[in-house]
Amino acid sequence: MIAPSAGDLYAADLASVATAQHLRFFPAAPVSGRGALLTEVDGRELVDLSGSWGAAGVGYAHPNVVEAVSDAVGRMAGASLLSSTNPEALALAEDLRALVPEIEDSRVYLGHAGSDANAAALRSVRAASDRPRLISFEGSYHGGLGPAQHVSGIYVSSGIAGADGLTLVPYLDLDRVAEELAHNDVAAVLVEPILSDGGVVIPEHGALRQLSDLCHAHSTLLVVDEVKVGLGRTGFLHAFRADGAVPDIVTFGKGLGGGLPLSAAIGPAQVMNAATSSSLLTTAGNPVCAAAGRAVLRTLAEESLPDRASVLGHWLTGRLGTLRKGRPEVLAVRSLGLVGGIELIDAKTTAKVAYRAWELGAVVYYVGPGSNVLELTPPLVISEDELARGLDIIDTAIADVADGAVDDAVVAPYQGW
Ligand SMILES: Cc1ncc(COP(=O)(O)O)c(C=O)c1O
Fold it and tell me: Ligand 1: distance of its center to the CA of 145 in Å?
């Protein structure tokens, strides 16, 4: 049998995988990955500057994760946390409580994805509070399904029903938040510490802290969604610590599982225990994903990955500055740690740059209300050389697209974000 090419694999995907879960930018079809590199079937290597939208925080196939998962799957202490406990899930819950000492007498919900962690947090908030309202921000993304989708500014602004009592406010418009909180009827404010899918918007220093002060002054719970930029990516273990904000509830996902489905919501017992049996997913808290999560947390500490993100982040900030010079297609660049945004002149150019970068050997996707911001969330273990190679590729891709290297028809099949 002739081995399939990357193109064959991609075509086969179209014949079998529902587009309901497609968010495609180019026909990538890697067959293996290690660290920050993905490899296609013919051996072509791609530097992954997205890290699977941040899910590959510790990189692909990290040896600690491989070992922990292999061990746990060989023992399988049950496959669910619903009606029995298991040592891996219990230890992960304990690790997570210790990771967020800001929350006193905390309890942990373990889930599969950022979406269900946020949904479970919201259900608990609703049960614990008699206040009817919620606030989230325009351009925010808290999940692609269920209750988390209904508080995501991106979806609600595009016509999906908002949650009952939801008010959307421009991102970190503190005057507006103060006005809304003054009614003393808001149960919770949900915030991303960096507005990621909304265009990689990094708040001014102190804004999150002020938001947290406002919430506490009005006895409103502050839910900080660390799903994308948490766990070391900003150079801080928690992004909310960049300016000393104090959350009431924190949610994690993506990188927490080392590539496996795993998420968590951590909040005070009085909230997280207010709605018994309200968020039930049979295999959530299974020992295999929990073991992966413990290995990830251990790796973050052992390899000082937050510090590494900070050091590489300084380099990235400098490189993004040079990328901008002399390129009218680049409107703005933003970064903090290993979160970066490159705002380009329009959506069509951005789609072509992402496509061209893939042709040249880098994976980068775009976000933002105008679909014109390349988002960088590479694995925190990326080497300096790989990061430099990835940025060089983006630089070349921008120049190539300006020279007309990618036809409209080539990107037309990919709906992008
Ligand atoms: C900030 C944030 N929260 C929640 C989610 C949802 O996570 P998941 O796709 O794992 O459900 C995402 C996904 O992009 C996100 O960026």
Answer: 10
CATH T-level assignment (fold) for domain 63-302: Aspartate Aminotransferase; domain 2 (3.40.640)
Please give the Cα distance from 380 to 394 (Å, whole number): 19
pTM of the model: 0.98
What is 6-58+304-411's CATH superfamily?
A: Aspartate Aminotransferase, domain 1 (3.90.1150.10)
Candidate from 149, 194, 228 with most ligand 1 atoms within 8 A of CB, to mutate: 228
Atom 7, ligand 1: residue with shortest CA distance: 114
The verdict on the CB of residue 329 being under 6 Å from ligand 1 is no
Residues 6+ apart with CB under 8 A from 28: 6, 10, 38, 40, 46, 358, 363
Instruction: Kindly list the domain boundaries of the chain, sorted by start residue.
Output: 6-58+304-411, 63-302
Query: Which of 141, 171, 355, 365 is the catalytic position?
Result: 141
Within 10 angstroms of residue 217's Cβ, the number of other Cβ atoms is 11
Q: Does residue 141 have an active-site annotation?
A: yes
321-378 pLDDT per residue, tens: 999 998 999 999 999 999 999 999 999 999 999 999 999 999 999 999 999 999 999 9
Cβ(255) to ligand 1 under 6 A? no
